[in-house]
Amino acid sequence: MKKLLRTYLPFTKAVMQGFMAYRMNFYVYILGELFQTVVLIYIWFAIFSSATSEVIQGFTFKQMVGYVVMSTLTSMLIGNEVHWDISQDVKSGRIATNLIKPVNYQLLKFFNCIGNIGINLTFLFLPLWGGYTIFDFISNGVIPNITNGLLYLVSVSLSALILFYINYLFGLAAFFIEYVFGFIFAKEAILKLLSGQLIPLTFFPKGLFNVFKFLPFAGLVYTPTMIYLGKFSEEDLLFNLGVQAVWVLLLMALTQLVWRKAIKRLTILGG
Amino acid sequence: MFTNAKRYIKLYGMFLSHYLKAVMHSRTDFIIGFLAFFLIQFGGIAFIALVFRQIPDLLGWSFYDLLFIYGFANIPRGIDHMFTDYLWLLAGNVIVEGEFDRYLLRPIHPLFQIIAQRFQPDGVGEVIIGILLVVYASIKGGIIFSPTKLLIFIVMIIFSTIIYTSIKLILSSIAFWTKRSQSILFMFYSMSEFAKYPLEIYHKFIRTFITYIVPFALTAYIPASYFLGASSLFKSLGLTILISLTALFLGLKIFNLGIKNYESVGN
User: Fold this and answer.
1) Of A52, B15, B38, B138, which has the fewest CB atoms closer than 10 Å, so is most exposed?
2) Chain segment A238-252, per-residue pLDDT in tens
3) Cα separation, A271 vs B223, whole angstroms
4) CB-based contact (8 Å) between A45 and chain B?
5) What ipTM was estimated for this complex?
């Protein structure tokens, strides 16, 4: 274990150091992404003022704001750059130098990903979450529930793993297609909807909801957010955590399979 | 003047046909890009549809009104995306890598070369979904397009596109001073999100801001509200033309100033 950390921790550190150089840019980008959240909150406000009842699909307006904030924060927290990195590695041929190093490529990317999450946690999640919690306490008198908070940590760890594997798979797509940019954009659009980042999955028609809750995407944002807000019954909680855990294992196996296929296709020009 | 314009049009045609040939060469890329931007819009539409299962109308706006505005927003955005995508690169690495030098060497205006440099077929997906939504919402919502109205629609789309292009031009030109400006461009470009829904839902400050400062409201809600019977032609079209021309003027000025200020990174 110690040897493993000594070998791979530098890859985490490298990501963090790279970040420190571009910190300003990072915040400007995040500000752009936060506009979408602001728009969402305004729309929900208009929706709740137009609705006949105070509760829509089990959410009051204040709870919906909580959902929007926590789902945004969750997706920010688990975000990584693994898919872009891998496609860059493949395109530039740099992957060859990675392959001849005595390190495991997937582990290397995993430790990169930990770096991404470390950055997200320190520079985004904690300050924004802290700000929101203080705001929520002052204006609504709400104190976060500790049990829910701890369960959230468990669930969001699984979310981070699921996203790592999904992005790893999409990065490997660079072995098979050239236009990864469009491919990744499409992935992000689908994830946004199916992960519950845009709207709680309960808003979907019952038939669709019953399918979506079995998909790995629900485990990305919807599950941890609902857990944090304490909106799951005990039964729901166990079911959703179970789905997350099963997908982690399935995706882990799938990445190995695709990797084996991908590496066979690799041709590096020149050297 | 005229011979000059003719020359530029002819040149653009040559660039474009060259590009289309390249696009046809990698048809899978085209399909992936097309689908990607189609799907991105699908998310927003699904959101509106899901929400309207819960409420009869949104502050007096019907489901089809919202679809119309959302669809309208995508048309100028997509057209601009098709033709001026290179501005994203100008804001990215073009200056740092010294690539801009070659545009200064040729006897054509650098801005023309930048625009002609790249045709981005991804934008086609946005335009098509926009048109489909506008047509669908018009039929279902009972908006009748007379020939005059159709003409007005096209004129509005042109000026709305100019707004997109001008905002991108102004922000990417900042790179002449700062070397890179992609993050700032992305941040301001993201404000176009606000334009996809009726302005009334926002705080007054935001409304003023996206009408006059970063005028994305003029790329969707304000022109679209004329067709929805919520605004007069004079106000919708007049404001759109006035502000888009101002923005374009500013964009060109800043770009030209930027070139004067440009110092090659050399080698």
Assistant:
1) A52
2) 999 999 999 999 999
3) 56
4) yes
5) 0.88
Per residue in B171-208, pLDDT tens? Answer: 999 999 998 899 999 999 999 999 999 999 999 999 99
| Domain residue ranges in chain B | 2-261
Task: Report the length, in residues, of chain B.
Answer: 267
Task: Go through B188-224 and write b for each residue having 16 or more CB atoms within 10 A of its CB, e for each that does not.
Answer: bbbbbbbbbbbbebbeeebbebbbeebbbbbbbbbbb
Contact residues on chain B for A178, CB-CB shorter than 8 A: 26, 28-29
Per-residue confidence band for A268, with pLDDT thresholds at 50, 70 and 90: low
Chain A closest-CA separation from residue B21 CA (Å): 17
Instruction: Please write the tens of the pLDDT for every residue from B18-54.
Output: 777 776 666 777 787 778 877 888 888 999 999 999 9
